[in-house]
Amino acid sequence: MSAQPGFITFEGVEGSGKSTQLYLLSRAFQAAGAPVQVTREPGGTPLAEKLRALVLADTDGGVDPRCELFLYLAARHDHVTRLVRPALAAGRWVLCDRFADATVAYQGFGRELDPEAVARLAWWGHGLRPELTLLLDLPVADGLARVAARGEANRLDREAEAFHLRVRDGYRQIAKAEPDRVVPIDATDDVATVHARIVDAVRARFGNRLPEGLAPSAEARP
C-alpha cells in the first residue's frame, strides 16, 4: 500500500464511459490491496447529492447559467471539505467522476460564460488539484448515441449538439494548456482497451507510489 495516495479525476463529454472506467480502475486498485474512495461531482456528500438532483432536474423556464455555475461550486466545496480531503488524509486513493475541469468545460465553454473567469472560480476556495486527470475523448455524436441507447438522459444530456461540441473543445483546450496533469485517452475503442490505456497512464504518472501488482482489472473483458 502506498503511503502517499493520489487524487485522480475522470473527465469527458456525455457518454464517454467515465463511470465505467472509474469503476474498473477502482477494482484494479482494490485487487492490488490499495484503499480507494470512489466519488463523483456533483455529489459525494448528502448536501452535494441534493444539489446534484437540483441542478440536473428539468426546471420550468430552465436554469440561468450563472445560477447553475454557483450550484456546482457550492457542491464542490462541500464535497472537497467533507469527503475528498478526509479520504486523502486517511491514506485512500480518491477516484472522482468529474471535478473542476467539468465546470470550466460545461459552464465556461458550453454555456459560453467567460472560461477564464469560470476557471478562477472553479479552482478557488478548496485549493485542491488532481495529480492526474484522465480525459476520455470521443466524438460528440458517438457519446450522445450511447446516452440515447441507455435511455436515461438528463437536462444536460438533452442540450443541443452545438453545446456538447463546445464542451469537447473546452476539454481539449484544458488538456493542451495542462499536459502535465491532463492525459487524453482515446475512448472510441472497446472497454477493455480503454481500461488498459488508463492503467498505463496511471502507472506512468505515479510510478513507485502505486501498490505492487496494479494491473488491469479482470472485470474488463475484451
Instruction: Please give the domain count.
Output: 1
Number of strands: 5
CATH class: Alpha Beta
Mean pLDDT: 93
Write the element-wise H/E pattern from the N-terminal end onward: EHEHHEHHEHHEH
Supply the CATH superfamily name. P-loop containing nucleotide triphosphate hydrolases
- What global shape is seen? globular
So how many helices? 8
The separation of the N and C termini measures 28 Å
Largest sheet data: 5 strands, parallel
Low-pLDDT parts are none
CATH architect. name: 3-Layer(aba) Sandwich
Question: What structural class should be given to the helix and strand makeup?
Answer: alpha/beta
Rg computed from alpha carbons, rounded to a whole number of angstroms? 17 Å
Write the SSE topology.
Layout: E1 7-12, H1 18-31, E2 36-40, H2 46-56, H3 65-89, E3 93-97, H4 100-110, H5 115-123, E4 132-137, H6 140-150, H7 161-177, E5 182-186, H8 191-206
Parallel strand pairs: 1-3, 1-4, 2-3, 4-5
Helix pairs in contact: 1-8, 2-3, 4-5, 4-7
Report on the architecture of this protein:
- The chain is an alpha/beta fold and 222 residues long.
- 51% of the residues lie in helices and 12% in strands.
- The protein has helices at 18-31, 46-56, 65-89, 100-110, 115-123, 140-150, 161-177, 191-206; strands at residues 7-12, 36-40, 93-97, 132-137, 182-186.
